[in-house]
Amino acid sequence: MNAEAVKQRVLRMAALQERHNLEIHSDWREQGYAYCRAIWVECAELLEHYGWKWWKHQQPDLDQVRLEIVDIWHFGLSEMLRDGRIDLAQAHVSGEVIEALQAQDARVEFREAVERLAESSLQTKGFDAQAFAALLTSLPMALDELHGLYIGKNLLNSFRQAHGYADGRYAKIWQGREDNEHLMDILGALDPLQEDFEVKLKAELEARYLGR
Question: Is the pTM of this model over 0.90?
Answer without folding.
Answer: no
